[in-house]
């Protein structure tokens, strides 16, 4: 099992300061290193820190002394976390710091999840030029993609959605996948668990969301129902 790591780029270059640039969350440290190189090559952009731990990243983003100007997060993180989980937990507390999602999959695969969770856009890991353009756009207060809201609107919307903090990381992942229309058997394959385990996650999520049916749970989760 890989031990979560944080690399503080400010400490490394002797220029650590509050709100000092872009933070990167990716469970693959080599990918994070590659993204750091892309960002470091661009004028006006630099990396504040990188992390392989979703939980530690949330804590750092919510702490003023370690909060970056922008968080760049992978959407597929493992260990019971998704990029949507990270976005949601941060956006419920902050209406300022922008979040840009990144993925190795086609961006449409995760775009809805990222938007619902309060991110300001999503880009492909394969397109370096687009990554830099998206970073600059979002840092200036814009959004990258039609589905996305700016930080203020996203914060208001997310805080009026059901209390997602009640759900565990895996329950959150299941609800996000259900919201995309995946069937139980497909979710089981995606999460590498049994179908009965997925059904257990669904049952717990329904109870926590106060939903009497799966349809109602999904509607509450996506904010499409006031019930």
Overview features:
2 domains; 11 helices; single chain; alpha/beta; Arc Repressor Mutant, subunit A; 227 residues; Rossmann fold; six-stranded mixed beta sheet
Task: Please provide a written account of the structure.
The chain is an alpha/beta fold and 227 residues long. The chain is 48% helix and 13% strand. The chain is built from 11 helices and 8 strands. The chain has helices at 9-13, 29-40, 54-62, 83-91, 107-116, 128-139, 151-159, 169-179, 184-191, 195-209, 214-222; strands spanning 6-8, 22-25, 47-51, 70-74, 76-78, 81-82, 99-103, 122-124. It has a 6-stranded mixed beta sheet, sandwiched between helices. Strands 5-6 form a two-stranded antiparallel sheet. Helix 3 runs parallel beside helix 4 (83-91) and helix 8 (169-179) packs across helix 11. The radius of gyration is 17 Å and the shape is globular. The model is unreliable at 11-19 (pLDDT under 50). It holds the Pfam family Response_reg. InterPro entries: CheY-like_superfamily (IPR011006), NreC/VraR/RcsB-like_REC (IPR058245), Sig_transdc_resp-reg_C-effctor (IPR016032), Sig_transdc_resp-reg_receiver (IPR001789), Tscrpt_reg_LuxR_C (IPR000792), WalR-like (IPR039420), WH-like_DNA-bd_sf (IPR036388). This is DNA-binding response regulator. The modification 4-aspartylphosphate is found at residue 74.
């Amino acid at each position: 099992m890989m031990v979560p790591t944080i690399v503080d780029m400010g400490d490394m270059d002797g220029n650590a300061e509050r709100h000092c640039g872009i933070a990167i969350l990716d469970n693959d440290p080599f990918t994070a290193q590659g993204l750091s190189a892309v960002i470091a090559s661009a004028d006006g952009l630099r990396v504040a820190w990188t992390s392989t731990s979703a939980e530690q990243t949330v804590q750092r983003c919510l702490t003023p002394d370690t909060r970056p100007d922008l968080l760049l997060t992978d959407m597929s993180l493992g260990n019971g976390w998704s990029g949507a989980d990270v976005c949601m937990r941060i956006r419920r507390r902050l209406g300022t710091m922008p979040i840009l999602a990144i993925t190795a999959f086609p961006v449409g695969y995760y775009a809805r999840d990222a938007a619902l969770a309060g991110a300001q856009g999503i880009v492909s890991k394969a397109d370096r030029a687009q990554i830099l353009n998206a970073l600059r756009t979002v840092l200036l207060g814009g959004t990258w993609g039609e589905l996305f809201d700016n930080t203020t609107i996203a914060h208001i919307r997310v805080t009026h959605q059901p209390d997602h903090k009640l759900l565990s990381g895996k329950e959150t992942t299941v609800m996000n996948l259900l919201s995309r229309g995946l069937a139980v058997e497909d979710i089981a394959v995606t999460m590498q668990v049994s179908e009965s385990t997925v059904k257990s996650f669904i049952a717990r999520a329904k109870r926590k969301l106060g939903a009497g049916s799966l349809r109602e749970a999904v509607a509450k989760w996506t904010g499409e129902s006031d019930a």
